[in-house]
Amino acid sequence: MILNIPELPEELKKLVTIATDIELAEKLRVQAIESISHGRSYEALLALLSLAADEKLTFPERDLAVKKARDLIKAAAH
Fold this sequence. Notes:
The protein has helices at 10-19, 26-37, 42-52, 59-77. It is mainly α. It has one domain. The radius of gyration is 11 Å and the shape is globular.
């Protein structure tokens, strides 16, 4: 289940909603995860980590969220 992160901007909330909507095609959910990672913000990192913890998502989707979160952390460290 996606965590309720009140400080997320509306655009990120919409992308998280798309990423967690199991009724949508996996391709759309993956695109939403990719779009979240383009935010390059603390809020985007929180959203990605929350998606990675969401057991409703498929393993590849959760793994992608972890990879994108890792990329954000690496980018912030440089």
